[in-house]
Write a structure and sequence with these properties.
Blueprint (H helix, E strand, L loop, with lengths): L1 E5 L9 E7 L6 E2 L4 E6 L4 E5 L4 E5 L6 E3 L3 E6 L7 H11 L10 E4 L9 E7 L6 E2 L4 E6 L4 E5 L4 E5 L6 E3 L3 E6 L4 H20 L10 H10 L17 H6 L8 H12 L21 H16 L2 E9 L1 H18 L5 H15 L5 E4 L2 E4 L5 E3 L1 E3 L2 E3 L2 E2 L7 H16 L13 E5 L18 E5 L2 E8 L2 E15 L5 H16 L2 H5 L2
Parallel strand pairs: 20-24, 24-25
Antiparallel strand pairs: 1-8, 2-4, 2-7, 3-6, 4-5, 6-8, 9-16, 10-12, 10-15, 11-14, 12-13, 14-16, 17-27, 18-19, 20-23, 21-22, 25-27, 26-27
């Protein structure tokens, strides 16, 4: 019986892939789950596994671009069943010794969110061979939105499979946990298998020095010959990443001219600067940082973003805080900060100017009747934006407690996906870092963001007299596709009025 092997779904936004390399030849006998070829998308490289054991019949060639669901090859399962006894005995002979007290438990990447298809192994918290207990945290995995802890499924000895910094798809193998007996022999067998594979990879094959289709295109654009590079892919193949890192060497013929020109224009030759005097450090971008970068660029490219400014006399708020700060903390066990005043003022203004609380969904504008306020927090691994739900219904103390709770979880990298999604409006406070003025970028798909800044004493005119007042500049960046100038300016003016007369927030006027 022939089994059709088609291009699998490899990502939510990926519609086509390219056959990068066949690892098996037409007519070869393949085993179930054996990797038969590599597929490349515009984002990553994927391995295609045999769905059944049998004889391979290739349909698509290397370099062909196929849509998701399109036929790649056939596997004739009948050919594999002719000598079942022989195959079973051979498999039994090749299989490494298993533990006496049960099989090793494989731990795979769990599902961590509806739209998350891959994660990065951030850090191992246990070493190779360590004995771990049931539900003990053994590793941290990172997605482009949050960091998650990986607990042990059973007690036993840890055998790592994936390394730190490695990107894994959902369901990919991370490690194994071995039972008490027979672990050492099993570990030795696994290490021997890995060693054999490593040695085999070093042997030159037809792929050695040959670029993948995507890599060939990049090298052609750079004017670099594939023969100048050594590939890091399977069998020495030049991958897309190799091509992107490649730099065209400077022709040595230019060197004598440069030296001759230097001798004519200076009395003393310039001493070459050693690399030790100009140190550099390279660090891999986390998934969170890459996602933030991508989203911010998309916002700049896809929205008609403008920023309007105003200034707020913070003396009334500061006087009110000074007067009731101690009694507020004593009663509610939380400090009375500026964020609760700004959050409360924004929720009132958002209900008066609903376009600022809206967002575009296709050809429609969605007006939210609630205020889910996103608060930008600088976490150790990057900027995160947890959400205060239904902030329009919360009191000052409830807002302050929620800010403290979410900020604490953000700094410990323990925010969940639901706690960071679904906001309708964002507040960011660059003033805590000393920023005087900025133009914050909209947190898509929202349509506006309020930027707070530092408070500086400035001379201002009050009732015809010059006085020194604590002034804060505030900025509202907004999407002009939804929000008109009248609405944006009026919203920011309303926030200013509420902060300069806090009693308005209590009286609702």
């Amino acid at each position: 019986m022939k089994i059709e092997v088609k291009v699998p779904v490899v990502g939510e936004s990926i519609t086509e892939v390219t056959i990068a390399q066949w690892l098996k030849q037409d007519g070869d006998t393949v085993e179930m789950d054996e990797v038969i070829c590599e597929l490349e998308s515009d984002k990553a490289t994927f391995e295609l596994n045999a769905e059944k054991a049998g004889t391979l019949s290739i349909v698509a060639g290397e370099g062909d671009t196929l849509e998701v669901g399109q036929l790649v090859c056939y596997i004739d399962a009948e050919g594999a069943a002719e000598h079942p006894a022989e195959d079973e005995s051979q498999a039994a002979a090749e299989e490494p010794a298993k533990p006496a007290e049960g099989k090793a438990v494989e731990m795979r990447v769990p599902e961590v969110g509806e739209s998350i298809t891959e994660v990065t192994l951030g850090a191992w918290l246990k070493e190779e061979g360590d004995v771990v207990e049931f539900e003990e945290i053994i590793a941290e995995i990172e997605s482009d939105k949050a960091t998650f802890e990986l607990p042990a499924d059973v007690s036993g000895k840890l055998e790592r499979v994936a390394g730190e910094g490695e990107t894994l798809e959902i369901g990919a193998l991370i490690c194994r946990i071995l039972p008490a007996a027979g672990r050492d022999s099993h570990k030795t067998a696994v290490q021997k298998d890995v060693s054999d594979v490593a040695k085999a990879d070093k042997v030159d094959s037809h792929a050695t020095g040959h670029p993948s289709p995507a890599a060939a295109k990049i090298l052609s654009e750079k004017g670099i010959s594939p023969g100048e590079l050594s590939g890091t892919g399977v069998g020495g193949r030049i991958t897309k990443e190799d091509a992107m890192k490649a730099q065209k060497p400077v022709p040595s013929a230019n060197l004598p001219k440069a030296v001759a020109y230097q001798e004519r224009t200076t009395d003393k030759p310039v001493a070459p600067v050693s690399s030790a005097e100009r140190p550099e450090e390279r660090k891999r971008m986390s998934n969170l940082r890459k996602t933030v970068a991508r989203r911010l660029v998309n916002v700049k490219n896809e929205t008609a973003m403008l920023t309007t400014f105003n200034e707020v006399d913070m003396k009334p708020v500061m006087d009110l805080r000074k007067l009731y700060k101690e009694s507020f903390k004593e009663k509610y066990e939380v400090n009375l900060g500026f964020m609760s005043f700004f959050t409360k003022a924004c929720t009132i203004a958002l209900q008066e100017w609903p376009a600022v609380n809206a967002q575009i969904d296709g050809d429609e504008i969605v007006y939210s009747k609630f205020c889910d306020i996103s608060i930008a927090v600088s976490a150790p691994k990057g900027l995160v934006v947890p959400v205060i739900r239904n902030a329009e219904k919360l009191s000052f103390q409830e807002i302050e407690k929620e800010v403290v709770r979410l900020a604490g979880k953000a700094r410990e990298n323990k925010l969940s996906i639901p706690e960071m999604t679904g906001g309708t409006f964002t507040i960011t406070n660059g003033g805590i870092f000393g920023s005087m003025l900025s133009t914050p970028i909209i947190n898509a798909p929202q349509s506006a963001i309020l930027g707070m800044h530092n408070i500086v004493e400035r001379p201002v005119a009050v009732n015809g007299q010059v006085e020194i007042r604590p002034i804060m500049y505030v900025a509202l960046s907004y999407d002009h596709r939804i929000i008109d100038g009248r609405e944006s300016v009026s919203f920011l003016k309303r926030v200013k009025e509420l902060l300069e007369d806090p009693a308005r927030m209590l009286l609702g006027v």
